[in-house]
Fold each of these.
Amino acid sequence: MAISHLHCLQSVRVSFPCRPSVSNNYYYGRDNFTRKSSSLVYASTNNLDRDLHLQSKVETVLDSVKWDNRGLAVAIAQNVDTGAILMQGFANREAVATTVSSRKATFYSRSRSMLWTKGETSNNFINVHDIFLDCDRDSIIYLGKPDGPTCHTGSETCYYTPVFDLLENQQDKEDKLALTTLYSLESTIAQRKGELEVPQSGKPSWTRRLLLDEKLLCSKIREEADELCRTLEDNEDKPRAASEMADVLYHAMVLLALKDVKIEEVLDILRRRFSQSGIEEKRSRNLQS
């Protein structure tokens, strides 16, 4: 999975009060906004004061964005679980307002002079969980979960061409996603797993040995987990704890590879547990069993 890092992000967020319906209008709460000219016109059905206040807050956020002379700002879509930078486009006020209402990443096409929602033709929507503004308030992040490949080429993200490879005249036949440490490790383990059927001469790699010996793998996971606990019990230093945690992660990820479980699936479960106490989560697992 590709990941890139964006800096200078402020904690300026457009949060969603509840899940609205998808429509050509803007929905905030249970009531809707319709656009007329360059302003939002409110059509109330109930709780007028509450919804007018919410409309005002949305307009205030949109007013704070430093739109360029065409009324646009850079809009970047980022995977909420992996941190992968999925794509970059442009958005105007209406695109951001539509994203807030529909929770689908919506952009403004400069070539067609119209709004477009990612996935409207491919069904590979980006389901937006939150929206962030950068420190200068001239660029936007749609933090969301993609339904499928983001790039029109079928690639997971639109970023798969390493500049340093181009400078060194290296042209790989396959796309090379921008992998950071955790996902580079996952990719390497997956590669070793794919090579299991290929005969090898010489001493096998440690990863290959673990993939071929489940008992060895499970014993190493238990051993490394115990050593991690001992860094706390024996008051060992921070580098030691970090080293042992790295061992736990590595061996656990080899097990995940054997189970065909992606680390993204694990992160998705962790995110879903953020708003749930550990006691409630364990209780729900007991009810399901």
Note: The longest helix spans residues 238-258.
Amino acid sequence: MSGHTPPTLQKLARQTLLRNEAMAIACLGELPTMLFPALFKEAFEGRHINLVKEMVAAWPFPCLPVGALMKTPNGETMKALLDGVDMRLTRKFHPRCLMTPLETFSVTCYIISQNELNSFSCCKSLFQLKHLELRGVILHDVDIMSLRGFLEKVADTLETLDLQCCRMKDSQLYALLPALRNFSQLTTVKFYSNKFSMPILKDLLQHTANWSTVNVEQYPAPLECYDDSAQVSVERFAQLCRELMDTLRAIRQPKNISFATEICYTCGERCVYHNGPRLCCCWQ
């Protein structure tokens, strides 16, 4: 007897739908909910552009996690994803079920183009977003103003903002400040691994007086903590982070706040300042 395991009925159904994209799109209104995640993953990875767009528009869950699918940047697939999200506002696929705006949008480790950022920022079905994760989405070389406009639109609903490892610089954070200060529901904000100086970090903290609901705050240690060879100066790290902490406490009382250096290439850890400095293994 052969040890080969035959494909499941669900696998066969997905294969049939992917071979006939037009039929798959026509059947979305009757597609069992349990088939959506696996079929969407295979359609996305196979770059079935039209099916991806229609599946996003018909997505039956409040969260659409695409970060893990973004292994290699593809502008056409990203555009189809955003077009589908926007279509959710006017499409009805299930009897008694009008598609509602997404609550969570997550893209990680992605080199985003200016056009993609602009399209994302204009996507109306994201204007009631609660959780935005752009961790590892490289923003260093893009015009950030479209993201600022988007953040202004979700100021009354956003609860989580994760912009870690985006390689943002001072001028970009400065451009976002008018939007950041208006958040009223924010509970978690993460900025680790961005390249911000001491003055802009102080400016950011001084714009957070309204962040009374924030429980977790993570900021990068200022650039002034590093010497000319990009090594952490322990004394400056402790001094400057303590100064930033004092700046914030003069405005409001933070619940859980930390400042952290870049990850150490030797031990793989960060130096973190919470109630005091906690150094990476190389300094202990």
Note: Residues 234-249 form the longest helix (16 residues).
Amino acid sequence: MDIEQKQAELIDHFVNQASTLKASALWPLIIEATSHPSLFAFSEILSVPTVSELQGTENSLYLDVLRLFAHGTWTDYKNNAGRLPQLVPDQVLKLKQLTVLTLAEMNKVLPYDQLMQELDVTNVRELEDFLINECMYVGIVRGKLDQLRRCFEVQFAAGRDLRPGQLGNMLQTLSNWLATSDNLLVSIQEKIKWADSMSELDKKHRKDVEDRVEEVKKSLSLKLQTVSRQTLTSEGTRRSTLNLVE
């Protein structure tokens, strides 16, 4: 089963579970979802009405945890650890995996030093083991470990949940890209027309040159014929003159 299909099935499972529970009973399900080794998307769970009802209740911290796993990073958790529940080891691992996805969204070449700082990893061996065993083997990223340059070159990274306001930015980016593509297409079409017109001009110029060459050839041929006739006439006259003299 590929990762996308497995994600879809897990999302349906947790959404259905959340829809049948009261808000006060949701926190164990949130811990289970954010600890699951194969689940990396949480926006659908966040959109369940009973989950939204956690806001302002004594269990609202678990709504914040779910939002953290949907949009945040390990650094975000450390900066807000004082007001969030302590994470279990599986949640820590999951949040660090999600952190790699966030970094991969922003850059396709990730320096080891940046990764070690963001993931709280103390040495290169530990970092490479994490990237291989917990990221690439799981299927959420693909890339190349460059020990010489001390960086991870990202070739593929699974997408994370869209952050609030990110959809509008993406639509604007796509709109700008479409406008740029349209302008580029117009420019290409104009260049094709120009090339076609230059080709026609080149053909016309070539034909004019060929016609001129033919005219010159004909002119030279006529001149040669005239000179030849004149030569023959002169030769005949000279012979006649010699015969008279004799």
Note: The chain has a mean pLDDT of 87.
